[in-house]
Amino acid sequence: MPTHAADLQCFEIPGVTFHDTPGGLVRISIATPLATAEVYLQGAHIARYQPAGAAPVLFLSEKTHLAPGKAIRGGVPIIFPWFGARVGHPESPAHGFARTMEWDLESLVRCDSGDILLVLRLSSNAATLSQWPHEFTIRHRITIGAQLHMALEVENRCDSPFTFEEALHTYLAVGDVRSAGLTGLENTSYLDKVDANQRKREGSEPIRFNGETDRVYLDTTTTCTVHDTALARRIVVEKSGSATTVVWNPWIAKAKAMADFGDDEWPTMLCIETTNAAENLITLLPKSTHTMTATVSIAS
User: Fold this and answer.
1) Could you state, in order of their start, the residue ranges of all structural domains in the chain?
2) Which of 205, 269, 279 is nearest to 76 (CA)?
3) Which of 23, 37, 131, 265 has its CA 20 to 30 A from that of 228?
4) Catalytic residue flag (residue 12)
5) pLDDT at 183 over 80
6) Catalytic one of 165, 169, 202, 238
């Protein structure tokens, strides 16, 4: 049975409210002196995050679908257990099933720091096993405060290893991507998905954007910084447990081709995705857990 806001009354604490949306999703709204945010049970999806006194940090398309089974365009979708198209399975949904399934709210607390910590959980079930035959539990630990901290924990409940790909597919809000720069990926090898997946190597200068960008940077654990000159700020993305960083902007033609993305929204977003994919996919031993984290913060 789908969860409704009334089912979550036992989790209520000051600054956190639950809502049934017109489209049929459950939204968790957070408003504290440190930050405001919105999280959906579907996909354990952080849709909005805004530290006190700052502009919104995450991009959310005005055209996005907010309906059961529809991926949300923007915020932080969770990609699992494959990234992009599933190799050898054209019938499988892009980016896996985790982002379109309803997760359970496991816990919700206010920390002594004033941060809000919520933990959402997705466990294997008949629907997941029909697509991917492995027993698992995933927890998304989200900390809302002066920074946004995310920890994605994947537990292998099988008696044999399994492999998977994953991503915190973070859509960052920028003033104008055409004047933005990105540092942290200098001299890193990447797969250029815009150019037939050719393997290339980044130069030593900050990355600039002048066309469609879809790059899978491999074997990199470094912090990335978006230099957003239009909004006079830097967005810093730190990570752990991740060896891949994906950088994406659809630019003009692809934006127009997506029904859930506004034609003129592309200049105001840039995806910096904390990922394990391609050559960096994870093999997880039985009864083991892998944790991938990302922390997003603002600097002037």
Assistant:
1) 5-299
2) 269
3) 37
4) no
5) yes
6) 169
